[in-house]
Known about the structure:
Elements: H1 2-28, H2 38-61, H3 67-80, H4 91-100, H5 104-114, H6 123-147, H7 169-200, H8 203-230, H9 240-260, H10 262-282, H11 289-298, E1 304-308, E2 314-315, E3 343-344, E4 371-373, E5 378-384, E6 387-394, H12 405-408, H13 410-470, H14 478-501, H15 504-509, H16 511-522, E7 527-528, H17 538-553, E8 558-564, E9 567-573, H18 580-588, E10 593-595, E11 604-609
Parallel strand pairs: 3-5, 7-8
Antiparallel strand pairs: 1-2, 1-6, 4-5, 5-6, 8-9, 9-11, 10-11
Helix pairs in contact: 1-2, 1-3, 2-3, 2-9, 3-5, 4-6, 5-6, 5-8, 6-7, 7-8, 8-9, 10-11, 13-14, 16-17
Amino acid sequence: MKRAATVRLxxxxxxxxxxxxxxxxxxxRPSQAFADTPRxxxxxxxxxxxxxxxxxxxxxxxxxxRSGVLLAAAGAGSFLTEWANPGIASTPTxxxxxxxxxxxxxxxxxxxxxxxxxxxxxxxxxxxxxLAYANSLLFLGLFQSLVYDPWGAGCTECPGNGxxxxxxxxxLDALGRIGMTVGAVWPCVLIALLAGRAVxxxxxxxxxxxxxxxxxxxxxxxxxxxFVHGMPRHMLxxxxxxxxxxxAQEAALLLIATAAAWPWFHRRRVRGALADLVVxxxxxxxxxxxxxxxxxxxxxxSLTLAYPLADGRLVDAEGHPAEVGQGxxxxxxxxxxxxxxxxxxxxxxxxxxxxxxxxxxxxxxxxGNTMAEGEAEAVTAVVRGTRTxxxxxxxxxxxxxSPEIARISRLALDNERLHAExxxxxxxxxxxxxxxxxxxxxxxxxxxxxxxxxxxQRLLTLALTLRxxxxxxxKTSPAAERAERELRAATEELRVLAHGLFPAxxxxxxxxxxxxxxxxxxxxxxEVTALxxxxxxxxxxxxxxxxxxxxxxHHATTVGxxxxxxxLLLTLTGTHGLDLVRxxxxxxxxxxTVTPGKPPHTEIRVEIxx
Length: 610
């Protein structure tokens, strides 16, 4: 870095010195210059120095990035347009101007294409820059200087051309046609390249580089218009139209200098958002609030957050099955997708293979993430030590703007992960309880069928046979009559037992018919306010019947049931000694609730999801 500073800092000083030197040249013959008034001279000086300053600041912040050098070169190149001024009295200076006066636009294009990484990227961009540099330095510069005789062309005020070999007007004109045509074409290709980058870039890169690309496209359009205007005369000049286009180009260069500082402002905004995130996380957001906070800070509404369980499932903050990723990177709900080595939430415990931070302490994502990318979404695993805290599903490059996000949200992620594990276990427990209750109801229905179709039928057959024997020629005996009475009593008790296990009418006709049959058998003085005629799920009907039967057995005065949305709401009034714990256990298996009444009102409300 010290060696680079030793070489580059004098170059920046020389570039800054080009400003006053250009002002001195312009003041010698203002009528031949673009900046022909003191105000325009000040604008020209401000534009060049602003670009040079932006390049210096960029280089100091990121010495390994060539963007700073290219911006400074573009600032210096903006001054060289005035160095082909015929009013210059110095032959060497005029000669330098003849060769370099058109190098400003290629330098600006190079800086725009290299922003923000410092690399031009595709082969198409490199080919375009090679064409632009060759056109400005050779066809519009060196080659024309070798055959251009200012005095022979009628410029009696021009100093001599130090590179003149032999005057050749025809070749000069041909070189001018080539240079003007290429100069009008390559800026249009540049605009197409920038548009393609804007369309194909990730959202995070687009947020950082779009201002520079837009300003560069505007500048390229103005340069193309200037070359098109000069095509009939096969050369660039400084007529009124050229002056207006030059003024517009200076304004576009100011936009480029401002756009060069945009990543710095964007980074400060992100850091401010991270500071707000720290404050928000310190307030311990409710389960699920962490995803919303991260989505807002990262500017990614599609961000998903899932927590892996020990059995390999993925759940959200509420313990529900979750999924991360889209396209090829999508993991089925409740399963963990394959990921590359995870991101470390703690730099001291980063797993082997995690990328190291760059010169500014940045990494490839949240605390050094590596991601398994799908077609449209990336998956980043955030770990602490050897334990995976969470999986983040996000747009590619979303986390590159906020490398500190894992470290900042580590505690909140850990807390929410614990809550998610607890919620998932509670859901598993309720599901297990529901399965046990369903298995019990199924077994009761089986026993009821077996008793009804087996033992009860056999007893009825035996009673019928005994009656037929008593009505025959055989003499009736008191023992036979007593046996028939006992047989009838056993049959009735077996029927009641079978009905108590699980009433067949409940499975066949539903809750309303089953409650009606219950009240008819018990002859209980219970008022029924309402019962749903529409069938609901078997589990919900069984739980509701069990609750209503318990209430009737405990002398309820009023019972009722109605459907409210996707819930079955039971109301019980006037019960005495009703065991609410038993009812809560029964309906709790279906995630239902029991709300006891408060004196003087004794209405009990039971809500059962169906």
